[in-house]
Specification:
The complex is a heterodimer of chains A (about 170) and B (about 150). Chain A has about 170 residues and is an alpha+beta fold. Chain A has helices at about 1-25, 120-125, 160-170; strands spanning about 25-30, 50, 65-70, 80-85, 90, 100, 105-110, 125-130, 130-140, 145-150. Classes of the chains: A alpha+beta (about 170), B alpha+beta (about 150).
Chain lengths: ~170, ~150
């Protein structure tokens, strides 16, 4: 009797858990140095971030947010990068085949903060928004790093059309 | 009042349980897809219903000739149903004298109705991460129930 009760609660509990992870979000470890200094600032410990799936349910991401996406080069790999440009933006590239890229419809331009040590859009070009899986919203571990992740783009990486508007409004 | 409240909470709990089970089945095993548009004629006509499974794309076992449902690369809210005609490394003829090699982690998708289909010939190779499921059977209309294996 006890065993059958246990099996019953597993059958009910597992789908509820998976659905929660799918819809609300989950915690993942950040590997590598490509997002320094925002994530993994020192080599000795890895950050754990909360990946918010609810925030990207309708694919409305903003410039400056950190997102996780499926790598376009290897579908088994998930990468974590910062959104620099959205569709229609003119982005000055760093070592891509063209110097300035206009982001096509339904795509975005992602970059790691650690310029030169990151496998990002400067390597594989604009990525389709359909590959975006979640938005990194909080650092949850270690406790000393507990914080919300701020949206931010370095002044030099702001897309040309956006920086032009900014100067005009001043 | 008490028993009514308890009943209400109980039935909400059941709805959540069954909703979660349905979510897992449709997200990880298989689901039904209604197709619209002419791009896959004569294999699939508009308004046909397909049964599609999610295991093959999840384990990266898609092959040339499979019909897959994928997110549209230019609009993530829309799904497309096309046939895989090229895997990574394949050379695809894109014009009279031009050709393109499918890059790593991508596939080449084309509709069976080549004259009326917007596919990889217009937006290039599609990342494998966008593939959602592989169509197995046509289940509707009833007089045309059939397997979709090549």
């Amino acid at each position: 009797m006890r065993v059958s009760n246990f099996i019953k609660s597993v059958i009910v509990g597992v789908p509820v858990g998976i659905t929660f992870l799918d819809i609300v979000g989950y915690v993942a470890r950040v590997d590598g140095i490509s997002m320094q200094p925002a994530l993994n600032p020192d080599k000795t410990s890895d950050d754990y971030v909360f990946l918010n799936r609810w925030a990207v349910r309708s694919q409305d991401i903003q410039r400056g947010e950190i997102i996780s996406l499926i790598s376009p080069k290897d579908p088994e790999l998930k990468i974590i990068k910062r959104v620099v440009g959205l569709q229609g933006d003119l982005v000055v590239t760093l070592g891509y085949t063209r110097a300035v890229v206009k982001i096509p419809e339904g795509h975005c331009w992602v970059e790691g903060d650690h310029t030169g040590h990151s496998m990002d859009s400067n390597n594989f070009g604009p990525v389709s928004l359909g590959l975006v899986t979640a938005k990194a919203s909080h650092i949850v571990w270690p406790p000393s790093r507990w914080q919300c992740i701020k949206s931010f783009i370095p002044e030099s990486r702001v897309p040309l059309n956006v920086s032009a508007n900014r100067t005009a409004s001043i | 009042m008490r028993p009514f409240l308890a009943k209400l909470i109980g039935s909400v709990g059941y709805i959540i349980q069954y909703g979660c089970m349905a979510h897992c089945t449709f997200e990880y095993l298989g689901d039904f897809v209604v197709c619209t548009g002419p791009s896959m004629e004569p294999t699939i006509y508009s308004e046909d219903i397909l049964f599609a499974e999610h295991l093959t794309p999840k384990y990266r076992k898609v092959q040339r000739g499979d019909i897959v449902i994928a997110k549209c690369p230019t609009n993530p809210k829309q799904f497309i149903c096309k046939r895989i005609t090229g895997l990574p490394g394949d050379q695809i003829k894109t014009g009279f004298a031009s050709s393109e090699i499918v890059p790593r982690g991508h596939v080449w998708l084309e509709g069976d109705n080549r004259s009326n289909s917007s596919d990889s010939r217009s937006y290039g190779p599609v990342p494998q991460g966008l593939i959602r499921s592989r169509a197995l059977f046509k289940v509707w209309p009833l007089n045309d129930v059939s397997s979709l294996k090549n």
